[in-house]
Each structure stands twice: as C-alpha cells, then as structure tokens.
Write a structure and sequence with these properties.
Elements lengths: L3 E10 L4 E3 H5 L6 H8 L3 E3 L7 H16 L8 E5 L10 H9 L5 E5 L5 H14 L5 E9 L17 E11 L4 E9 L7 E2 L11 H5 L6 E2 L1 H22 L9 E4 L4 H11 L10 H4 L6 H11 L8 E8 L3 E8 L11 H32 L8
C-alpha cells in the first residue's frame, strides 16, 4: 500500500536576546542602513551561554510534538540538520533523542549547510513512504553566533541562532510531501566553509590565532550561485510533483538575503504574497531558517489546507534542496488534552532523571568492580 509523508506538527525556538543593526554598529564599522539595504536584515537572535544547538532543538521538538499530539516514545527517526552541532560526536540528534525519551528512534545529524533541514526533510519523507518508518522528527538548528568572527563586518551582520522542527507521519491519504530535489556541487566547497576543527586542520594555537575556527565566505560568488539555484530547484521540485509555478500557493525560501529572495521570486514570476520572508527579524539562521519561516507562515495563517508549498534552500557544500508540500492539516489545530500534555512533560523529566541515574550507576560500578588494587591506598 502506498504511503505518504504528512507534516502533522511544527515548532520553533529562538533565543530571547535580540541583536539589532544599531547594536552591531557599536561593535564594528557598519550601520543599520548599510546592513538593511544590502541584506534586508534588521535584527537577529543570539543564544545565551546556557543555550546550545541541542537545547534549542529539544525546545522546538517539544513544541512540534505538542502540536502533532505525538508521544515521543513512538518516534521511529530523528534527523537534525545543522552545521553547528553540540559536538563532533555524539550527534546532536542522539542528545535530542535522549532528552525526549524517544528510545526506539534512530537518530543522526545531517550536514548540508543551510540546505540541511530541507535535505533532512526529503530523506525522512523517503524513509516514511518506503514503509520503513511511520513517525519522524526533523529539526533544523544552529548556534552560528559561536562560529562568527564578530570583528568581520562582512559576515557577523548576517547570522543568527534558532531552531525549528516538524513531525512527519505516514498514512495512506495522498498529500503531504509530494516531491524532493537534492543536489550538490563540491567544486564550490571553498566558497563557504569553516576551515578549522576537522581532521584537515585540527585545533592548534596557530589555527585559533589565525581565525580558522570562524566561518569564511565568498559572498559575491555565493550570491551568484544562490540566485540561480533557488529558481532551478523550485522548478524541478514542482515539475517532479506534476505542477508548475502557477500552482504554487507559497514559497518558503532559505532566509539568507532579501536580494536573493527577490531574484527568485522574479524568476518564478511570483507575487510578494506568494513568498514568505522573516529575514528582517532573524537574519540567516542556516538550517533553522526554513523551519522557522514555515512555523511563522502557519502561525500567521499564510498557509491553509490544500495549499501547495515549496521549501527551498542552498548552502555550504555547495548544496541545494527543494521540497514540494501539499498542506494537509486543517488549521487552527486543536490543543491536545491536558492529561496528554502532562504525560509528555513527565516523560521529559523522567528522561533527565534516567540519564543522571545511569551515569551514577556506571560511575559506581567502575568504582566497585574495576578499582585496581594499587588505587585502594
């Protein structure tokens, strides 16, 4: 029996701290007019010391699970699209799995630059339509403020932090994710990269001193690439679904630069009302930008049942991805019963207690069973 992957839950999280263009003008040689005229950005959110990619992922995921009224114990798959993971390993997705109490779910991170969430959404939808899984959680989350050089006005004005998530559910009713297009051109890898921190350039005093652990970008060449690929990927995704730009209700693009978004809209012959933009308030949040925009589009009633959406992104790699969605959830969504909300809250608390208890037991066993004789003195 044919299965379709439907988006049944969505959630977002952004830090409280707002960094405006005027704030940045006190840090580097720039101004609100200079930033806004070139990018469309007015402000961005910056994570606190206590906020990380994992904590923001968990917050967005909990909201998406609440909207979907799904018990995390029933999740089969968790994918986190990110270029700023909590650690190189373990994956941020595994940390999310533990925090949610989703112990039966497979979990992994996906690194595709700013295309990460859309890449992950396409892969998760294939996993569901194949019949292998029934429920998947897809997250896009970034803490870009930790890899930005705050003395470089070319890049520090662009990026912000945040997370967005969706729950995918398989069922036999046509709709949901109709098509996906994933692409890459590794010859452009040097245009947008984090040089240090991997096996090629591990952390050293020289690598840190020379700024190799900050994001590096050739803005002009990335702009030229993005302006073309957004249109091409959107058209391909629509064609794959048997549709055309005339069938498009709303385009939800990666929020990198207003000029790129405007260029894509012109290339697709779309009206302003057919393109969702929240770039001015969040800046470029990489993998988080498309799910953040999707959540806000839904919250602001820009999305209705049976609307045709395209989610499209581009990023480091170079990569690009687009997904066509037939929205199948009636809005507004009814709130789940309070008792189910309480059960999920209890599960999250129990997961935290269980993690601490297991860590203590392992420590105790090591002390009791593996203590060497010479250590007893």
């Amino acid at each position: 029996m044919t299965q379709y992957a439907h988006i049944v839950g969505w959630g977002k999280y952004v830090p409280e701290r707002v960094l405006t263009n005027d704030d940045l003008s006190q840090m580097v040689n720039t101004s609100d007019e200079w930033i806004h005229s070139r990018t469309g950005i007015r402000e961005r959110r910056i994570a606190s010391e206590q906020e990380t990619t994992a904590t923001m992922s968990v917050a967005a995921a909990q909201e998406a699970l609440r909207v979907a009224d799904v018990d995390p114990a029933n999740l089969d798959l968790i994918i986190v699209g990110t270029i700023t993971p909590e650690y190189l390993f373990p994956s941020t997705a595994c940390l999310v799995q533990d925090a949610l109490g989703a112990r039966r779910a497979a979990a992994f991170d996906l690194s595709a630059g700013c295309s990460g969430f859309v890449y992950a959404l396409g892969m998760a939808s294939h996993a569901l339509t194949s019949g292998a899984y029934q429920l998947a959680l897809v997250i896009g989350a970034e803490t870009l403020s930790r890899i930005v050089d705050w003395t470089d006005r070319r890049t520090c004005v662009l990026f912000g932090d945040g997370a967005g998530a969706v729950v995918l559910q398989a069922n036999k009713h046509p709709g949901g994710i109709l098509s996906s297009v994933l692409g890459a051109d590794g010859s452009g890898g040097e245009l947008l990269m984090l040089p240090g921190g991997g096996s090629r350039l591990p952390p050293t005093l020289d690598s840190v001193t020379n700024g190799m652990h900050y994001l590096h970008m050739d803005g002009r060449r990335v702009y030229r690439f993005a302006s073309k690929i957004m249109v091409r990927a959107t058209r391909q995704a629509l064609e794959k679904a048997g549709l055309s730009p005339q069938d498009l209700s709303l385009l939800i693009p990666h929020q990198a630069n207003q000029r790129i978004i405007d260029s894509a809209a012109r290339g697709l012959k779309l009206e302003d009302s057919q393109v969702f933009v929240n770039l001015d308030r969040y800046g470029n949040t990489s993998s988080a930008s498309v799910p953040l925009a999707l959540c806000e589009a839904v919250e602001s009633r820009r999305v209705e049942r049976d609307d045709t959406l395209v989610l499209v992104g581009f990023g480091a790699g170079l990569t690009w991805a687009a997904v066509t969605v037939r929205w199948s959830v009636p809005l507004p969504v009814a709130a789940p019963p309070r008792w189910r909300v309480a059960v999920r809250w209890a599960r999250y608390r129990w997961s935290a207690v269980r993690r601490r208890a297991l860590n203590f037991l392992w420590w105790l066993l090591e002390r009791l069973l593996f203590l060497r004789p010479e250590d007893k003195d």
